[in-house]
Amino acid sequence: MKPLDGFRVLDLTRFLSGPYCTMVLAELGADVIKVEQPITGDDSRRLAPKVNGESYPFGMPNRSKRSVSLDLKDPRGRDVFLRLAQGADLVIENFRPGVVARLGIDHETLRAANPALIYCSISGFGQTGPYRDRPGFDIMAQGAVGFLRMTGHPDGRPAKVGIAVNDIAAGATAIYSILAAELNRRATGQGDYIDISLVDAGLAWTVWESGAYFGSGEEPAPTGTRHRRSTPYQAYRTADGYVTIGANNDRLWHRLVVDALERPAWLEDERFATLPARMAHIDELQEEIEAITTTRPTAEWIKALDRAGVPGGPVLTYAEALADPHVIARGMVAEVEHPIVGTMRTIAPPAKFGSLEFEVKGPAPWLGQHTRDVLADAGLSEAEIAELYAAEVAYDAHPELHDSPAPQER
C-alpha cells in the first residue's frame, strides 16, 4: 500500500512545474488523471526528440498517469469535468490567472459541489500582485529572482541555471504544500486553495544569498563554480579536465594542503592561513592550486582526495553521469515499456525508503488513452461517451491500439 492510494488528482497542468508535481504524487500512489485538450494535448507533447510520433521529453514528467482528452471550452466537456471534479481530491492547474474562471472550473465553482477539494494553482507570478497577469516561464522567473545575475562567470553575459530550476522549485513546493493540505484535510475534512508561483518558489531557495543580503547588503554575483562564502570550494583544472574540491573548513583545509596537495607551508602563508585571508586572495589560491592539479589527471586527484578524506569528484558530462557505476548501482535509471515508443529509459524516484514503495508505475499515456475508462467510471453511459467522441469533445489519439499488441521499438 502506498501513502496516496485512493487519492484522485485531476491534472490540468502543462510543460514542467505541474507535471513534475503530479508525477511524484502518482508514484506515491495517487490516481493522476491528466486532462488534456483534444488533438494537441499538453504543449510539451510537441517537443523533440520523438519516437514513433511520441515525445520523449513529454514522457519524463508525465509517466505513471492516465490521460483523458476533453474540450473544456465546449459546455459538454466542461460538464463532464465538473462531474469528475465531484469525486476528486485534488485539482491542479498552471494556466495564467483568470483562465480557469473563464472556463468555469475555478476553485470557487468546484468547491461548491466538493467542499473537501484541494485546489492548487501554479503560475509565473502568482494569483495576486501587480504582475499576476503576466505570462511567465522558467526563464522569466529566473530573471525575476536574480538567478540570471548570479549564475555563470564574472563579467559574462547573464546565464541561466542549467536546468529549469524555477519550474522544479514550483513543482516541489506544490508537492509538500499539497501533502500538508491533505494531512489537514484528513484531520478536519476541509479542503484548501494553494497559490504557488515560479518566482516565489525560486526566491525561497535563495537561502545563503538572502542571509548575505539581509545581513550586509551584499548582492550575489556570478562566481563560476566558486562558493560565495568559503574556499577552496570549486572546480579546478587538472591534466585532463576538472576536479571539484570542497575543503571548506579548517579541518578539511589542513587535510588538503598537507595530505593531498603536499603544501604544508600554506598553513602558515598569511594569504591562506585563515578563511578570511583565503577569500581575500581567492584568485591567487586558485592559481596556486591549479599549478599543482594540472600536473595529474582527474582520476588520480580523486584518489588522492579520497585518501586524505577531502570531498572531491569529477566534473562529468550528463552522458557520463548517467553511465556512472554509482548512479547505476543506486537504481537511478529505470526502464518502462510504452505501448507506442517501446522500451523507454527514465530517471527513477530519488528517495530510498526502508519499506515504502516508491517507483515508476508506468509510462506516460498517449493523448486520451484513458478517456473512455475514466468517463465510464464517472457514470457516463456508452451512448453518452459515443456522443462526446462524435462531437469531438472527447478524444483518443489511438483508439486502434486498445486491442492491439504493443509494437516493437524502432
TrEMBL record:
Protein name according to UniProt: Crotonobetainyl-CoA:carnitine CoA-transferase CaiB-like acyl-CoA transferase
Recorded GO MF terms: CoA-transferase activity
Keywords: Transferase
One Pfam short name: CoA_transf_3
Keyword Translocase: no
Signal peptide: none
Tree of life domain: Bacteria
Entry annotated with the keyword Oxidoreductase: no
SUPFAM superfamilies xrefs: CoA-transferase family III (CaiB/BaiF) (SSF89796)
Lineage: Bacteria, Bacillati, Actinomycetota, Actinomycetes, Streptosporangiales
Transmembrane segments: none
